[in-house]
Amino acid sequence: AQSVTQPDIHITVSEGASLELRCNYSYGATPYLFWYVQSPGQGLQLLLKYFSGDTLVQGIKGFEAEFKRSQSSFNLRKPSVHWSDAAEYFCAATPGSARQLTFGSGTQLTVLP
Amino acid sequence: NAGVTQTPKFQVLKTGQSMTLQCAQDMNHEYMSWYRQDPGMGLRLIHYSVGAGITDQGEVPNGYNVSRSTTEDFPLRLLSAAPSQTSVYFCASSYSIVGGGSNTEAFFGQGTRLTVV
């Protein structure tokens, strides 16, 4: 079955530290991959997406993600976290079908001052 | 542009009551969908529509009804609310199949927080 796994339920980092959020997918072929961020009480905002080509994808707010086919992973990174990055982060994937997106269970990010 | 608008933002229902969650988009998107978000489970697809007059079931459709009479609107109906339907509901829209091209991404509303008591 197609699935998206985010192994880390909760991550805590200090402001200014680097960040990596993990995402693994299980699909027959490489799906289209996305990272969304959800601030408290808000909807989902797209951070970045991978369709094809360069495996290092740049997004908004200083985030980037690297697609690794051999590891079926699409990890999100940021070199220096800001307090405003505290939020829940969702990895999502689709094979390109009309059934839209399959989401991971989310990773809650806490940023310490 | 308003994007995707959901109403209401909050709702409390009693078990057995019915209600409709509204979703409207002003981007002329063909594809619309409803998700529910529960702690530790991410977002799960309830129903989706690929255009006016066409709907289909997602992963968790039981207890919900949808219709798509116009391109702009995609309401979600709870026929007889149950406590298990307490959740945050998100509506999303996209120009076409998500991933069907470099510009096809899903846009989300701000959510409706529903509590069934």
The biggest sheet of chain A, with number of strands, parallel, antiparallel or mixed sense and barrel status, is:
6 strands, mixed
Low-confidence stretches of chain A: none
User: End-to-end span of chain A in angstroms?
Assistant: 41 Å
Order of helices and strands of chain A: EEEEEEEEEEEE
Explained architecture:
The complex is a heterodimer of chains A (113) and B (117). Helix content of chain A is 0%, strand content 51%. Chain A contains no helices and 12 strands. In chain A, strands 2, 5, 6, 10, 11 and 12 form a 6-stranded mixed β-sheet that branches. Chain A has a 4-stranded antiparallel β-sheet with strand order 3-9-8-7, with no helix packed on it. In chain A, a hairpin with a 7-residue loop joins strand 10 and strand 11 (102-103). With 117 residues, chain B is an all-beta fold. Chain B has no helices and 11 strands. In chain B, strand 4 and strand 5 (43-51) form a beta hairpin. The radius of gyration of chain B is 14 Å and the shape is globular. The mean pLDDT of chain B is 90. The A-B interface holds A 4, 6, 9, 31-32, 34, 36, 42-46, 49, 51, 90, 92, 94-106 and B 4, 31, 33, 35, 40-45, 48, 50, 56, 58, 90, 92, 94, 97-102, 105-111.
How is this structure best summarized?
By secondary structure, chain A is mostly beta strands.
Helix-strand blueprint:
The complex is a heterodimer of chains A (113) and B (117).
Chain A: E1 3-5, E2 10-14, E3 19-21, E4 24-26, E5 32-38, E6 44-50, E7 56-58, E8 64-68, E9 73-78, E10 87-94, E11 102-103, E12 107-112
Parallel strand pairs in A: 2-12
Antiparallel strand pairs in A: 1-4, 3-9, 5-6, 5-10, 7-8, 8-9, 10-11, 10-12
Chain B: E1 4-7, E2 10-13, E3 19-25, E4 31-37, E5 43-51, E6 54-57, E7 64-66, E8 76-78, E9 87-94, E10 107-108, E11 112-116
Parallel strand pairs in B: 2-11
Antiparallel strand pairs in B: 1-3, 3-8, 4-5, 4-9, 5-6, 7-8, 9-10, 9-11
